[in-house]
Amino acid sequence: MDSKKAIGGRLREARDRLGISLQDIASSTRINAKFLATIEEGGTPDVPLIYLRAFIKAFAEHVELNSQEILKEYFAVEPAPPPVEQNPERPRVHVSEPEPPKPQQKTAQSSAQRQVKVLFVISIAMITMLLLLIFFLRDTRTDRATQETPFSEIVKEKEPSPVQEILPADSAAAKKVQPKPVLTDSLRLEAVASESVWVHIVIDNAITREYVLTPRRRLQWKGKTSFLISVGNASALSLILNGVKLAPIGAASRPATNVLLNRESLKQVAKDPAKKDAG
């Protein structure tokens, strides 16, 4: 039996044993149900290899199977086909040599070849410039949406604003001077992946982003009010909100769905420092 079909059968049996549907798994892992159905039927979804590995790993863990064993069997190398026997030596056929072309024919042929080479070089140069332009524009839009920062440049917590001098209640200056409100509407969320992990995030209930982070990959997002984050493997992602390291958002090797992070999250860490130390 094909190893992929056998793995698909094991995934289906484990899912039936737990009494869950493909749509339930798709809702929890944020993976398209069409891809899950293809994997379960023994096929291969038309996605990049890193996405395929993440999908199979999340599927296996959701139905309580050993994801590493499933991945090893799914991507096992098939034996190479036997070498093809060479054809027996055929009898040699005498071919008369063609007559050398005349000088005028050589000149015309050389000129045509030079023109073809020039056109080929110009076409390659134009295609290269077009690809570079597309890559530059795409990279610029990506940088505007998400800013990636190295670990050495992680921003420290903002220092508290200095306390204003308190004037006497009956002072004329106390009646005129009004303290300026402190702007506290910016949030900064940083994520560090310890292994390959799928991440889905909604910023301020308006901007949606989706990633598959590789080990030691770091991303940073900025928002005004909140972040709504879902992770394929909760223990594989460390989160830092406004310079404060948060506790894990879910159980180890289990997905976490629609976890809300806002200023209340910082207040909870301040009230209970044990949550911060647990992270």
Brief descriptors of the model:
279 residues, 8 strands
Describe the 3D structure.
The chain has 279 residues and is an alpha+beta fold. Helices cover 42% and strands 16% of the residues. A four-stranded antiparallel sheet has the order 4-1-6-7, with helices on one face. It has a four-stranded antiparallel sheet with strand order 3-2-5-8. Strand 2 and strand 3 form a beta hairpin. Helix 4 packs across helix 5.
Work out the oligomeric state of the chains in this entry: single chain
Shape: flat
Order of helices and strands: HHHHHHHEEEEEEEEHH
The rounded Rg comes to 31 Å
Strand content: 15-25%
Question: How far apart lie the N and C ends?
Answer: 45 Å
How many helices? The count is: 9
Percent helix range: 40-55%
Chain-averaged pLDDT: 75
Alpha-beta classification = alpha+beta
The neighbouring-strand order within the major sheet is 4-1-6-7
What is the number of beta strands?
A: 8
Largest sheet composition: 4 strands, antiparallel
Low-confidence segments: 77-91, 146-171
Topology:
Blueprint (H helix, E strand, L loop, with lengths): L2 H16 L3 H8 L3 H8 L8 H14 L4 H8 L28 H43 L26 H5 L10 E7 L3 E7 L3 E7 L4 E6 L3 E5 L5 E5 L2 E2 L10 E6 L1 H9 L1 H6 L1
Helix pairs in contact: 4-5
Summarize the structure.
The protein contains nine helices and eight strands. The protein is α+β, with helices and mostly antiparallel strands and 279 residues long. It has a four-stranded antiparallel sheet with strand order 4-1-6-7, covered by helices on one side. It has a four-stranded antiparallel sheet with strand order 3-2-5-8.
